[in-house]
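Researcher: Please translate sequence to structure tokens.
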Amino acid sequence: MSESQPRPKHSRPHSAPLPLSPLTPPSSSTLRGERPKPGFYSEATAMYVLDRVGVALAAASAALVVGRGVLDIVSGLCVGYVSALAGITMRDFLIGRSPITWVRDTSYQYATMVTFIATLIIVRNLPPIPYSYTVVADALAMVAIAMVTTREAEKAHVPSFAIGFLAGFTGIVGGLARDLSCQEVPLAMKSHIYATSLVAGACVYLLMQGRGVRQPVSFWVAFAVALLFRFAAVFGGWELPFFNPPHAPFGPTAH
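Model: Translation complete:
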């Protein structure tokens, strides 16, 4: 190379950007082509575990209700499956995910069957279990399923207003199916703060995400808020204003 020609400058090669999942919103580090740094918290693992814990708790609540009735084991197991998997089914259907998660992942079915049978054996061989156990299991299950739905809907780019509806609907549909199948008055019709707690949790999560709060912090704070609202309704008697016909006695149990 002659001295008159300029010497080429050596530039660092640009790293190729990482492929993005269509359901995962890109982060600033991913857009810059940087690989995410490993950390203690894994969102994928947390959602995986929480979703199955919610299913197991829904199955346990179904077993607590079935154990007080006269259903045979097969009919009771069907009620358990409907109660545990109804929310997952509706979530995947409404956000356009196919095939349904529990169809392609048998861990949901194992969690449902094992938890239901184990809880039913306990119910049938121990003194009567207080009804509050059913309510607590139902609250934990509905909040877990609703908050996972909130996150999955966000990753699927569902509008914020619809995310609140999805959280409330998918969280309560399993309990409705359980109580109606066992000819019980649904919990959703006994307490006014029921689906409201799930919508509140979804709104808190979306507001915190909009303010730039880290995703794990937003998620678990919203989870705690939803659970607090539900437990406040169960143990503290919290309720929202309700409407009665004119000249009717005031109260949710008025006839």
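Researcher: Any highlights?
Model: The longest helix spans residues 131-155.
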